[in-house]
Design goal:
This protein has a two-stranded antiparallel sheet. The protein has helices at 3-12, 14-25, 27-51, 87-94, 102-116; strands at 64-68, 97-101. The chain is built from 5 helices and 2 strands, in the order H-H-H-E-H-E-H. It is elongated. The chain is mostly helical. The structure holds zinc ion (ZN). Zinc ion binds at residues 53, 55-56, 58, 101, 103-104.
Length: 131
C-alpha cells in the first residue's frame, strides 16, 4: 500500500476521524479552515462579480446567487461554501449554474406563481424581466 492510499484509509478510520476532529478544533485548524473558507468565498464572489446577473446589470456579489439550470444536477451547494469543496468539483458545478441577482430571482418566482394562479389577477399581466 502506498502512503497516499494508507492515509486515505487512515482518515476514514475512527482513529483518523477523531484525530482530524481534534486538529479541526485546535487553533491551527481553526485558522486554516477559516482562511480556506475566506479564500474560496472570495474567489466565488469574484466570479459572481465578473459574470453579473443574467438579466440585469447587478454585479454586487452580495446580491447575486447561483441558480441551477436543472436543480436535479446539484451535487454541491455553491451558495453554502464551507471552504472544504475541491476546486475541481467547484468548477464542474459552476458549469451547471447561472448567476442571477436576488431581485430577478424573486421576480421569476413571482411570475411563476402568477402563471399558476387560479384567480383572474392575470389581467395585469406579468412584467417581463428586462434584458
Ligand atoms: Zn438581476
Amino acid at each position: 500500500m502506498d502512503r497516499k492510499a494508507y492515509l486515505r484509509e487512515y482518515n476514514k478510520s475512527e482513529k483518523g476521524k477523531a484525530r482530524y476532529k481534534k486538529w479541526e478544533q485546535s487553533e491551527t485548524g481553526k485558522t486554516y479552515r477559516k482562511r480556506q473558507y475566506e479564500r474560496q468565498r472570495a474567489i466565488l464572489d469574484f466570479y459572481k462579480h465578473i459574470r453579473g446577473c443574467k438579466y440585469c446589470r447587478e454585479n454586487c456579489p452580495g446580491a447575486l446567487t447561483f441558480e441551477y439550470r436543472n436543480p436535479e444536477e446539484k451535487t454541491l451547494d455553491l451558495n453554502q461554501v464551507n471552504g472544504c469543496y475541491k476546486w475541481g468539483d467547484v468548477l464542474q458545478e459552476l458549469s451547471k449554474v447561472e448567476v442571477i441577482c436576488l431581485n430577478c430571482r424573486e421576480r421569476q418566482i413571482w411570475q411563476q406563481k402568477i402563471k399558476q394562479a387560479p384567480w383572474p389577477a392575470l389581467a395585469l399581466g406579468s412584467p417581463e424581466i428586462a434584458s
